[in-house]
Amino acid sequence: MTSSFKLRILLTRQEIEAAIRKLAAEISHDYRDRYPLLIGVLKGSFMFLADLIRNLDFPLEVDFIRLSSYGGATESSGKVRVVHHLCSEVAGRDVLVIEDIVDTGLTIAFLLDYLRKKKPASLRLCALADKPSRRRVPVVIDYPGFTVPDQFLVGYGLDWDERFRNLPEIYAVDADGP
Ligand code: PRP
Fold it and tell me: Which residues are registered as beta bridge partners of 107?
């Protein structure tokens, strides 16, 4: 990544809020009476999860897991490990994983496999952004927000070397100049 860059807005606050309202309506319809366990994948999903559950007016539980993939800074090696474990029991629960973005799919494929071994009653995935052009393993996103282009994205939880997570919108990072 170049040191000279510009942030170009890709998804506005209003677009994100509208997508979240739509996702929340679908999730409410499917989970209203099921006391689901929502699992946020740290760090990137914290903002999306927080906004999503403000739109869910039924009983649910929230937990977090933090994963780390070995390899380069911008390219996942596919060797994922858990660095912050869940506190909740997964067995028998209706589990909904909340991700910010599915890129190669390696992180979420690992997590879904990890959770499946814990025998949840059901297991589904909600992801705000889907970058299918980069996919290396097939992933079914049960509740997808946006399809995004193959560009480096920051904001709304997404970072560039830990920066920009705090931006309320999602931006594409453009190299500035030649
Ligand atoms: C990002 C993002 C997803 C994952 C997607 O997390 O939050 O979890 O990468 O990439 P993949 O589909 O290619 O596996 P990251 O590992 O950057 O950690 P972070 O959430 O702490 O930023």
Answer: none
